[in-house]
């Protein structure tokens, strides 16, 4: 009886650890076999005498960590990150810069001056809070809505706009769609359009970094809750866990995968709920709270480097803007719903309220700052759109170190075609 009792306690401890409700224990008459636990290589668990489903409703949801409420008040003073006035002001101004630039570049696309754009409205705190907790040596794999990370790291207005206009000054040489940024200097891997491709790549990079002697950097991989439905996401989670990679898998759960709301995109406890299933340390935060994101990211970074293991961080937010300039979000959600998240629940509003309470906010100074940013962005657009496009030959010469014969033939064929039909090609807009 003693051994049975111990094993029953062992089962209850497991249930408690996974926050399985006590009603499940009472209803299922779980009696252990003589104190034995399994020795199967695939899982270690206690034996029970009755077949029982563990249902999703029997497991409590992973809680959402929050520091600031909507009024900018810190609920638990032990969670105050105690950031300096200068740091908090940089956080606020970087969010304002991103927000202002988004508005102007969105209108630029609507005017037909660029082909495509994606705004970051409502998710500024996820970008800035996470970036502020990292070191510049940490490597970033973004999806396509992490421009704020680059803002924090020092990517200039000129670099943002040159990339969107795909001109000769674009570090990507015009090979990517707008908002598909990259910067070797800032350890920000160039974004690619296909969803979730960056996830297994990020895990592989983290594994390589782990093998370095005295490694002191991690990898952060940003992705949306919609991307988490891709097969690459599951491969990334599993490889990160089994290979013990120092990678932070940062999910921006903004409620919508293009036009698909989260409740149709997945079942279960969001994306954070998948972390424990893969054996990964997991935390969920209020993505509209810059301090919560900062604290959680700092905690994750310390963990993955100390333990050489991955962590999942799910930031809960709301995509205030349309998915992209190809989308009209009012077709699948109400304007009233959007307004709530664009006002009282907006990350910039919350941080502003905090700053007002600390007497760190000056309305006149911030208005001047916004005006200055607008002038700089508009001026840069007028400059960037006049810059030449990269030389068309780079389509062929910038792929392989030594141009293979088949590409040389294609380049020569295009060259002949351009010479014979110059009136059909805007050659004057391209660098010679």
UniProtKB/TrEMBL annotation:
It is found in: Mitochondrion matrix. It catalyses: N(6)-[(R)-lipoyl]-L-lysyl-[protein] + 3-methyl-2-oxobutanoate + H(+) = N(6)-[(R)-S(8)-2-methylpropanoyldihydrolipoyl]-L-lysyl-[protein] + CO2. SUPFAM superfamilies: Thiamin diphosphate-binding fold (THDP-binding). Its EC number is 1.2.4.4. Its cofactor is thiamine diphosphate. GO terms for biological process: branched-chain amino acid catabolic process. GO terms for molecular function: branched-chain 2-oxo acid dehydrogenase activity; metal ion binding. Keywords: Metal-binding, Mitochondrion, Oxidoreductase, Potassium, Thiamine pyrophosphate, Transit peptide. GO terms for cellular component: mitochondrial matrix. The branched-chain alpha-keto dehydrogenase complex catalyzes the overall conversion of alpha-keto acids to acyl-CoA and CO(2). It contains multiple copies of three enzymatic components: branched-chain alpha-keto acid decarboxylase (E1), lipoamide acyltransferase (E2) and lipoamide dehydrogenase (E3). PANTHER family: 2-OXOISOVALERATE DEHYDROGENASE SUBUNIT ALPHA, MITOCHONDRIAL (PTHR43380). This is 2-oxoisovalerate dehydrogenase subunit alpha. It comes from Glossina fuscipes. The gene is LOC119641484.
């Amino acid at each position: 009886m003693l051994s049975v009792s111990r094993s029953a306690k062992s089962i209850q401890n497991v249930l408690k650890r996974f926050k399985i409700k006590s009603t499940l224990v009472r209803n299922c008459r779980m009696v252990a076999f003589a104190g034995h636990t399994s020795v199967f290589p695939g899982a270690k668990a206690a034996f029970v005498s009755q077949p029982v489903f563990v249902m999703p409703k029997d497991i409590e949801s992973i809680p959402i960590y929050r520091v600031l409420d909507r009024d900018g008040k810190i609920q638990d003073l032990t969670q105050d990150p105690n950031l300096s006035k200068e740091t908090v002001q940089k956080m606020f101004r970087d969010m304002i810069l991103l927000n202002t630039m988004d508005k102007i570049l969105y209108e630029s696309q609507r005017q037909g001056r660029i082909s495509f754009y994606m705004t970051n409205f409502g998710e500024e705190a996820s970008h800035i809070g996470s970036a502020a907790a990292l070191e510049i040596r940490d490597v970033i794999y973004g999806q396509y809505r992490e421009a704020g990370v680059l803002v924090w790291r020092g990517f200039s207005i000129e670099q943002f706009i040159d990339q969107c206009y795909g001109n000769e000054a674009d570090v990507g040489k015009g090979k990517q769609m707008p908002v598909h940024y990259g910067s070797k200097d800032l350890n920000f891997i160039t974004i690619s359009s296909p969803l979730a491709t960056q996830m297994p790549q990020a895990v592989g990079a983290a594994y390589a970094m782990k093998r370095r002697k005295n490694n002191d950097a991690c990898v952060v991989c940003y992705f949306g809750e919609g991307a988490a439905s891709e097969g690459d996401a599951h491969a990334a989670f599993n490889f990160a866990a089994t290979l013990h990679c120092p990678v932070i898998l940062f999910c921006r759960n903004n409620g919508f995968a293009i036009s698909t709301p989260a409740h149709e995109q997945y079942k279960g406890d969001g994306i954070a709920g998948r972390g424990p299933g893969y054996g990964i340390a997991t935390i969920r935060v209020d993505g509209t709270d810059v301090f919560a994101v900062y604290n959680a990211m700092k905690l994750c970074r310390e963990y993955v480097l100390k333990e050489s293991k991955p962590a999942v961080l799910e930031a809960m937010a709301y995509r205030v803007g349309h998915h992209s300039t190809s989308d009209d979000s009012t077709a699948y959600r109400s304007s009233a719903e959007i307004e709530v998240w664009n006002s009282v629940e907006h990350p910039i509003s919350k941080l502003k309220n905090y700053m007002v309470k600390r007497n760190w906010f000056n309305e006149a100074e911030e208005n001047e700052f916004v005006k200055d940013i607008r002038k700089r962005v508009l001026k840069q657009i007028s400059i960037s759109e006049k810059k030449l496009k990269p030389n068309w030959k780079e389509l062929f010469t910038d792929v392989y170190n030594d141009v293979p014969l088949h590409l040389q033939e294609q380049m020569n064929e295009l060259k002949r075609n351009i010479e014979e039909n110059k009136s059909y090609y805007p050659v004057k807009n391209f660098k010679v």
